Amino acid sequence: MSMDARNLTRNFAAPPELRGDLRLAAEMIEPGSRVLDIGCGDGELLSYLTRHKDVDGRGMELSQSGVNACVRHGLSVIQGDADNDLADYPTGAFDYVVLSQTLQATRNPRQVLLHLARIGKRAIVSIPNFGHWRIRASLLIQGRLPKTALLPFPWYETPNIHLCTIQDFATLCAEEGIRIERSISLDRWGRPYRLNPVGALANLLAEQGLFLLARR
Question: Is residue 203 part of a domain?
Answer without folding.
Answer: yes
